[in-house]
Structures are given as structure tokens and as C-alpha cells.
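From the shared-data thread, chain only:
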Amino acid sequence: MGNLLKVLTCTDLEQEPNFFLDFENAQPTDGEREVWEQVDLVLKDARSILDELQAYKGAGQEIREAIQNPNDEALQEASWAAVVPLVGKLKKFYEFSLRLEAALHSLLGALTNETYDDPTQHLEREQALAKQFAEILHFTLRFDELKMTNPAIQNDFSYYRRTLSRMRINNTQAEGENEVNNELANRISLFYADATPMLKTLSDGTTKFVSENKNLPIENTTDCLSTMASVCKVMLETPTDLFLDHEETVSFCLRVMVGVIILYDYVHPVGAFSKSSKIDMKGCIKVLRDQPPNSVEGLLNALRYTTKHLNDESTNKTIKSMLQQQ
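Structure, as C-alpha cells:
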């Protein structure tokens, strides 16, 4: 994903990051290896999760026919047979989100501890972990983009729950009934009810990490996030870098930048849009605006609709205007 990339400047940070970040070839040091191996097990499954989600077609046809012909037993059975394996996939995606949250906690623990004096040193010296953090964010934004454009997911799960409830009332034993018990079904339903379920998982997970680690200054976490945002922004601003020839790498950096901004906005007491924010939001939005509109509309919407502090009175009006213009 590009050669070694040098971060040049970022005027809005108290200390300008000036180091190489290798998103392609970074290998874990002995100190990183234990956490890296734990997270690697999760990331190895991320690609197949995205592939399965992208290929998810839903059971819309079978469900429509079953609803339109409620007395046709064959159609009822056909719709149920179509939905059950799909619910198995939805359960798998949900369970992966729990693994992803645990991986995030491991990475945050490593990248924010007191081993080094500041987050820049962590990111510079623990590049393999920084790369994994970026890969988690990239996966998260991509998963949510795919989920938002696939209404079949919620339709299928709603139909499954309604049908299962009806079967229980009628004391009918359903094949696949044990796939998802009631408590798990409630949690899965809440997960998919959110427009960006993976991002919510990471936002909640980051907030939880901070609240559970009160011995760590909150700045350890927020500075790690703001530095990552700066790294991505400057890479995208630097057209001389070879990585800009690769559309996949540009997309990767854009998603990571937006992901860390959103996490920062949830964790920082006044968020990413205030004057005291260490993220150059004007610069980040400009970088997004400089891309082909179709390729970044989903990311702009993520900043518009999934951040916590955008509509606060303290938000810079110029930033709000830049973000809201179509």
C-alpha cells in the first residue's frame, strides 16, 4: 500500500509529527508481537467478512411471496429455508464486531501506555500496531458503507424474528430456531438498527476503553487519534508521494482519517470540531472535498451524521459550512 510515507507538517498540532509510517511493510518488533498476533487473527477474517457482506443478496423475493400467500405452506417453508442461513451470516457479522472491539482494546492499550512519552513515539516505533489500527478503521468504514446500501439485512432479520415468534405461538418446532436465541436476537437487532453498526461498536469501545483505564490520561488516547488523523491528512495532501497513484491506497487513507476523527469526537470532552481540537478539521474536510464526489460521499455523511459534537454551539461555523455544503 505504497512506499514509506513521510508526514511533513500539521500546523494545528502542538508537536508536528515528522516520521515515516509504512502502511504496507511494517513488521512487528519483539515488543509488539504478542498484541500483533492477537489482532492479526481477527484481521485475517476481516476480508472474508467484507466479501460475504458484499455478496449478501437477501431473501426479498421469497419473503414477498410468502407474505402475499400466507396460506401457501410451500412458500412459507421456502422463505424460511432462504432466511435461516442468511441469519447465520448476520449472526457471524455481529459476533465479529465483538472480536473487533476486543482487538481495538488491545491496540489502544499498547499504543497509549506509558512506554513512550507521547503518541508520536508510539506510532513511529510501533508501526505494525499502527498499521493494524488503520486496518481495523478501514474495515469498519467499508463494512458500514456496504451495510447502509443493503436494506435486505434488516428486512431479513425482522422477517426471521416475526416468523419465529409466530412459530413459537403455534408450538411449531422450527429448523434453525436454535441459531439465535431471544437474548442474542435482541442484541443483533440493536446492532443492525444503527446506520453504522461497526463504527458505533468502535466508538462505544473506545469510550469504554477510556472509562476503564482512568489511570491513563485521556490525552494518551486522544493524541494517538489526532496524530493518526494528521498522518493520513498529510499523506493525502502530498501529491508527489507515489502512493497517490494507487486508488486503493487513497481510499484506505481517507477511511482511516475519517474513522479516527469520529473516534476522537466521541472520546475528547469537547470533540473534534472545537477550536481546542488537535485535528485540523478544515484541512481534513478539504482533502475529502478534493476527491471525486462519488468516492467520498459516504465518508462525508459519516462525519455529518455519526459524529457526536458537530452540532454543538462551540463548533466552528466555517467547519460546519464546509461539511454541510453539497
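Strands lie at 5-6, 20-21.
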